[in-house]
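Per reviewer request, we include the raw input and output of the structure prediction for the construct analysed in the revised manuscript.
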Amino acid sequence: MDLINYLTKEYGYREPILLEDLTDELSNISASSLRQKLKRLVDREVIYRFENGIYFIPNPNSLLKTKTLSVEKVLEKKHIIKNNNRIGYVSGLAFANSLQLTTQVPSKIEIVTMKEARTKRTVTYKNNSIILRKPRLAINNDNYKILQVLDLVNKYEEYIETPAKNTNEKILAYLEGNNITKKELYNYLKNYPTKTYKNILESGLYDEITQR
């Protein structure tokens, strides 16, 4: 098999190629043989190594001299989405900032992911420090947004700077289309500290989220 043709067809240019995924996809090739093949392609500068176990094919038509890859793409591919299914999400200050609920700029991106077994761990990609956390319960395409919001509410005083009315409006807009019953919300909250339940009740979000 011509490996570079396979990689180009399946991944395209400037997209993360994870060794862990390739090992599963090309199970007819031994792991050691696959690593050797990738190393030869790297040595020939046909593909580039972003970090250990992460590769990409540069766009041959690009005018950029620097051969690089988006860290955001790597994070999404490695920790957030696998085979079109949600396995993680951005949390913490970065999420609060994306909803314009705080002016604080996070020094580290925080990601909750099913691929993490530890309560908290810090990894580095190209000098970008990333905090990884294991989830409180299984993440999927249907529940990741409400879990993001519950993580946010759990740190309400620490992350949120906007008035309650504006905060609720932005959160409800983010959850648009995610219908959830009081029972479902309560079952999620059982996995969170008592203060999360207290914060969501006092903010009025508990009723607003479930009455839409």
